[in-house]
Amino acid sequence: MDFLIDGSVGAAGLAVLAFGLLCALGFEFANGFHDTANAVATVIYTHSLKPVQAVIWSGCWNFVGVLTSSGAVAFGIVALLPAELIVQAGSPASLAMIFALLASAILWNVGTWYLGLPASSSHTLIGSIIGVGLMNAITAGDGWIDGVNWDKLRSTMLALLISPVVGFVASALLLLLARRFLRNPVLHQPPEEQAPPPFSIRALLIATCTGVSFAHGSNDGQKGIGLIMLVLISLAPAAFALQLSTSPERLSEIVEASRFVAPMLAKAPVPGPIDNDIAETHLEHYVDLGRPDAWTLPSLAVKNDNIRKMLTGITSLRDLSPEQRTQLRRDIYLIDEAADEMVKSNIIGDDVAAAIDTLSDKLIPLTEFIPVWVKVAVALALGLGTMIGWKRIVVTIGEKIGKGRLTYAQGATAELVTMSTISLADVVGLPVSTTHILSSGVAGAMFAGHSGLQSQTVRNILLAWVLTVPATMLLGSALFAASLYMFLRLLG
Predict the structure, then answer these.
(1) CA proximity to 329, closest of 380, 376, 366, 281
(2) Rounded-to-integer distance, Cα 436 and Cα 207, Å
(3) Handedness of CA 128, 132, 138, 139 (dihedral sign)
(4) Structure pTM?
């Protein structure tokens, strides 16, 4: 297998690739400290399962969740990054981006875990992405406002902000319903010391743990998948830039769709001389800023022609050189992202929009794919992280949010709401925080159950919630600048 880094192949490239994959799996390992520990918190705290049993059970369902995930969240996270850093895979800036994202996310996750705070891996990753994007724009001489895809970031941040509120309110309401209709007194009592709950209650708690674990794997596990795919695409494009097993029939369909849309794009007047590099620059700015100009459609036409010419007459993507595979991935990414922007902003006619959308749908499977071994590795990293670091988070969830100890009903309602909220977010392809939904759900259930809330713990959780994004922005930007300097020196 050829591993390509900035045009050079060799042991150094393999070493950097191995280090990048290790860091990406390290992020998921640290994610296990926080998010997966939340999934097992109630079953361990209520003695429904022993810790080792709970971790293994949760890990299995995380694995199933990751394995059956669509990949929408993984590639949605990647799309928040500036188009320049994604398109120029293997460049010093792209490599610096990867390591800055991973290092800042791991450092913040480990730090907040050490303090026993249920901090959010999602907020950590988003903050790091913003910091990297802003610093990249500054170092490139662009305005800092151009460093982040603000439109996509808005919907992502909205999901992260609203979901804990949903967790609090929905858990409170669900507990009130449980107190009204489920009158078994044992359900509304804290667990006895070391004694497992009655069978029916135990089954309920294990079921909610199962649901949260599956939903967590399906949503949160994809964040690590997205990071690993970034590493593979940047450092090993010959093998991972494209889905090499794409059928000849699919390639023929793409060529036909490209031919169909070409005359429509050719109608747009060309403002001046245009080649592949000029088209790439204009489309990168359009994808990042969402502001079309006279160059947008002609640039799209150039990229469409590139794809058609590259795929015409071949029966397998393996027939393309590593450089061609990397270029084809760039072209597909820009066409897909530009098509989304054009359809949303309604700047082209319905017939053109439909044709470009059809072309985009046929192109996406070539680039948005996830090898099975990546899913397996992420699931194992999550499970191992949970096994080592579960205790601090479990104690916080069970004893330090409310003034009273967590009851069976409060734990079950919080996990049921968490499972439902994450599953809904997974359907629409948005990342949410398992940590914040569950901890706010526990707080809501405690509040509705008149257990009271420990102001210091709630304040610390809110503080971690508020500070995570700005702190990781600063950390990500500083690490990006340092990494960029290092890679520029190493790669000349």
Answers:
(1) 366
(2) 20
(3) positive
(4) 0.78
